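Z., the sequence and structure:
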Amino acid sequence: MKVYLAGYNVDTSILKELENKAGKRNDLTPEVLSAAYARISRDPRPINEIRKDAREEVEKSRKSNSTIIFKMGHHSVAEHAVFNLDIIGVSRLAMEELEKFRLSAYTEKSQRYITLDKGFVIPKEIRGTTLESKFVKMVGIQNEAYLKLYEKLKEHTFKKFPDLAADPKKHNLLEGWAKEDARYITPLAAESQVGETINARNLELLLRRFASNPLTEVKELGREIYALVSEVAPSIIIFNEANDRDSKTYPELKGFAEKFTGKGKTKTGTGLKDVELVGYTPGADDAVGAALMHTSSAMAYAECVKTVRKMSVKDKKELFKTAWKNMQFYDSMLREFEYVNLTFNIVLSSACFGQLKRHRMSTITSQSYDPSLGITVPEAVKDIKMERYFREIADKSADLYRMIHKKCPVAAPYILTNAHRKRVLMRVNARELYHISRLREDKHAQWDIRNVSSAMSEEAKKAMPLTLGLIGGKDRYNEIYRGIFGSLPKVSEAVLPGAKKIK
């Protein structure tokens, strides 16, 4: 057995320093890795030798990439080339478009931990119009409200938790709680920044979608990224321009839907819950049980289904308990739990959506932000008697939204706040729902996403009680486990950092 470290992420400033010292090189490109790995299936030599040839003949490697990826259709070869992007000064609204892509990694500036400055994006769609001054004035009011709310919320939080306030090491925690509630009044135009890691195949998809996006800011972001990566790796980023599929499909679907819903009419769904389970796999408990039996036996799946259906309730519970008994809170649920799905219709704030959208192994589609859905007001804002003030600013933001929407609908959401809401349709398998619950129902999670994920879990348990019998936040894992098994997991030493062991 031989293993070579073929490459790893290196800061581009270091590469430039090396070039300045040793001279210009044309092989400092991820294309050589893609070209080398593309040849593995047809070249009998060791991979490290193939890579050496690819480095020495970069132009030949580029031609090879173009042939193998785009003419022969082996697009997965482009996944071996990876880019790290620093993206700065992008609005929270545009960030939602950036973070839609499943197979990428993102770390974003948090509005929960960083005191926000007054940086914001003025959409180009309204620059130079009479709406621009109104927009800038409204953002100023929102930013002023953020600072005012933060100071009052900080004072309130320190008084509410005197034990924590007495410890200077906990002050950042208390200030963070104040910031996370104050940010609900900040606009979607607020600037943010993100570090992104993405492979070339997914980057090409991102660039194509961005070129087709109706927002000018998103189009410009795509052009900026392309200008940088095309210099480094021209052979693996080819189909990056706008196309009909991405630019026309949703507008045409909207036109079709308006035949039945009425143009410009909003149906708020009065009386519906904020979290509603609208679909799920029928017979889910038996389906998961059959999948567990299938992995653990020599029976065909159809026979496994028959076997599980004939089991007593006691035996079915024992089957699930056997699948769970060796788990700790940090363990993933077994993959067999992916065979059943749940679909939720969720109405949630922009602040909450910013957290929910990070669960990219689910399927998430959403409507545009809609002021008629109301706003989410943090309880702490009510506690400090600032709810009326908060709502007045949110209402003024919504009024300007409607004014902008009449002339330029695509730019209108920029002026809405993190408190404004949208509808999301989310489909998850049971395994992914366990992951969401462990992370987002934990007592350390932010209250808004905790409320949403708790409601999802409660609805889901009604549909598949056996499958979701162990669901809950990681802070409650031992408690839930003990309720099922009568004792703690055998290895109970694995506790959260700083947490007390449960005995």
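DSSP finds 20 helices and seven strands in the chain. Residues 130-160 form the longest helix (31 residues).

Let me know what you think.
H.
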